[in-house]
Each structure stands twice: as structure tokens, then as C-alpha cells.
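pls ignore typos typing on phone
acetoacetyl-coenzyme A + seq
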Amino acid sequence: AAAGQAPAPEFKQDIARVGVVGTGTMASGIVQVFAQAGYDVVFVGRSQEKLDGVYGYITKNLDRAIAKGRGTEDEKANLLGRLTGSTEREALGDVDIVVEAIAEDLEVKLELFGDLDRIAKPGAILATTTSSLPVTKLGEATGRPESVIGMHFFNPAPVMKLVEVITTDATAEDVAETTRALTANVGKIAVSAGDRSGFIVNLLLFPYLNDAIKLHETGVEMTVIDAAVKETAGFPMGPFELLDVVGNDVSLAIQKELHGEFGEPGFAPAATLEAKVAAGELGRKTGKGFHDYS
Ligand code: CAA
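k done
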């Protein structure tokens, strides 16, 4: 390694088969990322319809790439051939790492981690892509907290380069290093972060998004705020466009978690964010959020 640079992380254990739990936007993108890097991926969802949704998401992305002259139908067929969808968690029994990407709800994740502890083979890494919940607690739901780690991808996972790697006091150093090596191997950049709510990026990003909604509530047009941010700060999207990509349900869950953790009065979720979620206007995935996509 060059002077001042940390040496590249090394695999301390073999990772050949990857498991993903979940079928939403993040899970779908994460399945694509691993399959694109050549890994066999087993992904688990609650119904065949949800599994089909993952295939649909990936097929759409690959078709778009092919239309742009990158990739071929053969490569697409090979990539899809590396995927195995299942409605049974038992299908995760022989994977080397499981990446959990289900609802941002602690109780739901705790139940899953208890079950993964029962199902996953000894030594398998159990990773969560939670964006705000304590990884330590998920580790404590298992009999192997040394194998539990955070691997936080960003939306859209096939595009965004960053992965926050979150270690707890219990995470084994070999597990952390293998996770960083895996992150590099799928073409992403790992940044190590401690197990505090919001890690690095969301602690900065979501209060800003929440403040944008509160600013709009005082009467400033959303399009004006979006345009101002894009034109001055060089952000690729304005806050309302980004909220619609992330999903208002996800944003509300994160903002509530940050508010609960830090107790900052300004972190209280904006009333309009709560209202959007109550109305089912979750963003692009439902065709309407802050902006309309129908
Ligand atoms: N899946 C796969 N690929 C996608 C995609 C998707 N959902 N959306 C866009 N892309 C690809 C396009 O195919 C295109 O690829 P090429 O350049 O190779 O052809 C590329 O991304 C650029 O897309 P577009 O030209 O259509 O549009 P764009 O220039 O506006 O880029 C964007 C789209 C990458 C999403 C960009 O707008 C962007 O970076 N937005 C900000 C995203 C962001 O900040 N994400 C973090 C959210 S916070 C989070 O995720 C934390 C959490 O815990 C919830």
C-alpha cells in the first residue's frame, strides 16, 4: 500500500454464495449488485409475487443497460441464472453471508436475526442493511454476535458507491475485514462507521430532508427548494425528489429513530411526512409522493 494508505482488506473466509432477505427496493438492488459481481445469490421473500418483483426490478435495469449498449442478452441470462428466489428462509442454510434488507422495524429484524442464527451455517456472516437501528441489538438476538455486522447500502444500490460497514463491540475483526473485502469486490467503497443511530450519512442527510419539508410547510414551493439545492450545492436531486426515491415510509422510520436517539427537538418528523405516509403516498414506488409520477 502507498504511504498513508491502509492496506487493501483481505478475505479471511470464503464468500461464494450470498443470501439476501427481503424483496423491496434495497433488497432488489443488493441482489443485483452481488449477482453482477459473479456471486450466486439466494434471496428470500414472503410470496412468489414478491420474488417476481425482484426479478422484474433487475430485468428492467439490465434491459436499460443493454439498450444503452452495455451488456448483452447472454450476460443478462447468465446473471439471472445465478439467482435463486425462495419463500423459505431454510434456503439460506448454506450461504456464506446473509444480507438482511427487510422493513426498518426493530421487532421484525430481531425476530429474523434469531431465526437466521438457527438457520445459517456456523461461521456465516449475518449482515444487516439497517440505516438507523442498533446493529448491537441484532447481534444480541443471536448466539453469535461476533458474526453480526452492518453493511449499509444506499438507494439505488446498483449505482451508489458507498457502503457503510458498521461494527459493534462484539464483531470479530476477521468478519469486519471480510465484509470490507466483499464490499470492494462488488465495486463499492467501504467506510467504517460506529454503531450509532444514522451512522454517518443518514445522520447528516435525514435532518436536512426533514428540514426541507418543514421549510415547504412555511409556504416555499417544493420545486423552488429542489431547484435551489440542485443549482447551488451540486446535489444530483433536490430534497423532495430524493425523498420520493428513498420512500417516505423509510424516511419517516429513520427520522423517528434519530429523534428518539438524540432527542433534538428539531429532529421531530415533519407533519407533512407523517401525513404522506398515512395517505400511502410513499414516493416513486407508489406512483405518488411529494411529486406525482403517474
Ligand atoms: N437502478 C439501477 N440503476 C439506476 C437506477 C436504479 N433504480 N436509477 C438510475 N440508474 C442508473 C441509470 O441506468 C444510469 O446509468 P448509466 O449512467 O450507466 O447509463 C445512471 O444510474 C444515471 O441515471 P439517469 O441518467 O437516469 O439519472 P440521474 O443522472 O438523475 O441519476 C441517480 C440517477 C443515480 C439516482 C441520481 O439522481 C442520484 O445520485 N441521486 C441521489 C441518490 C442518493 O442520494 N441516494 C442516497 C439516498 S439515502 C439512502 O439510500 C439511505 C438510506 O438508508 C435509505
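The pocket of acetoacetyl-coenzyme A is lined by residues 61, 64, 68, 131, 154-156, 158-160, 202, 205, 236-237, 242, 245-246, 250 (CB under 6 Å). The longest helix spans residues 48-67. more later
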